[in-house]
């Protein structure tokens, strides 16, 4: 069983961090320092599927688990990601039930869906060492679709009802942008859309995921019933650490901030 899926289905709130830089070392370091679930960002991050597999290997070797936000919901992309052994997926920009249905079908073998078969030779089956892989792959799959457009909110009940869709994942800034409110997530209209999603998911009995932001932290989102919450990313951790170190350097050196040999490295 996919442990992330199992934790979510039993009502636990799972937290995660983003891998944006395509770096196995960055991801491994995060796992070893408090972030055992890593979300590989294949939509906005660096690298393609093979780079994602390298990150996944590092995370798994360190004792963690990976989720991948795929770049798109095409049959080829989903098939290749699943064959390469990534079993928890977020698919962006899912605005209709028809699109959600096609995604679910691309991710599952017949008779549930229409995923292409190559089970004995792919990483997902441990290159054939798991002969039962194809018959159990649907149980291991955690499939999240991203609700990040007002059209998706209008179609929320129909999307949530699609067999095989396990979670609705909210993209708050893109959602706000879809109504002309990009980077203005705290305004009443985007907040009302978020509330509509939360109410609709509760009515449908479908768990929610999202990122920290839009005025809500981990505790706020957990109280609102979100079961998968993504926080920091490797870029921000490095940049924020660099800025803090630079500010401390300048404080120690005084207003002029002249570099010395002691801080060249």
UniProtKB/TrEMBL annotation:
Listed InterPro entries: Aldolase/citrate-lyase_domain (IPR005000), HpcH-HpaI_aldolase (IPR050251), Pyrv/PenolPyrv_kinase-like_dom (IPR015813), Pyrv_kinase-like_dom_sf (IPR040442)
Pfam families: HpcH_HpaI
This protein's UniProt keywords: Lyase, Metal-binding, Plasmid
MF GO annotations: aldehyde-lyase activity; metal ion binding
Sequence ranges assigned to domain HpcH/HpaI aldolase/citrate lyase in this UniProt record: 18-230
GO cellular component entries: cytoplasm
Recorded superkingdom: Bacteria
Gene3D superfamilies, alphabetized: Phosphoenolpyruvate-binding domains (3.20.20.60)
Family: Belongs to the HpcH/HpaI aldolase family.
UniProt protein name: Aldolase/citrate lyase family protein
Species per Swiss-Prot/TrEMBL record: Shinella sumterensis
């Amino acid at each position: 069983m996919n442990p992330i899926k199992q934790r979510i289905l039993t009502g636990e709130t799972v937290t995660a961090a983003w891998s944006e830089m395509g770096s196995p070392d960055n991801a491994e370091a995060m796992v070893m320092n408090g972030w055992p679930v890593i979300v590989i960002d294949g939509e906005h991050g660096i690298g393609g599927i093979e780079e994602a597999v390298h990150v996944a290997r590092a995370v798994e070797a360190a004792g963690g688990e990976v989720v991948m936000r795929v770049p798109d919901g095409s049959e080829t992309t989903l098939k290749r990601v699943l064959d390469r052994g990534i079993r928890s997926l977020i698919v962006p920009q899912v605005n209709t039930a028809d699109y959600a249905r096609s995604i679910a079908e691309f991710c599952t073998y017949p008779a549930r869906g229409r995923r292409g078969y190559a089970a004995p030779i792919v990483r997902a089956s441990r290159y054939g060492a798991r002969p039962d892989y194809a018959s159990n792959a649907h149980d291991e799959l955690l499939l999240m679709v991203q609700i990040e457009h007002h059209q998706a909110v209008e179609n929320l009940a129909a999307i949530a009802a699609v067999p095989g869709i396990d979670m609705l994942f909210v993209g708050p800034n893109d959602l706000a942008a879809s109504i002309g409110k990009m980077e203005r997530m705290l305004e009443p209209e985007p907040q009302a859309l978020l509330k509509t999603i939360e109410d609709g998911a509760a009515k449908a009995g479908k768990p929610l995921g999202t990122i920290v932001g839009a005025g809500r932290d981990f505790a706020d989102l957990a109280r609102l019933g979100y079961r998968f919450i993504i926080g920091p990313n490797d870029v921000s951790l490095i940049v924020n650490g660099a800025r803090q170190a630079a500010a401390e350097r300048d404080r120690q050196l005084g207003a002029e901030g002249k570099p010395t040999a002691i801080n060249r490295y």
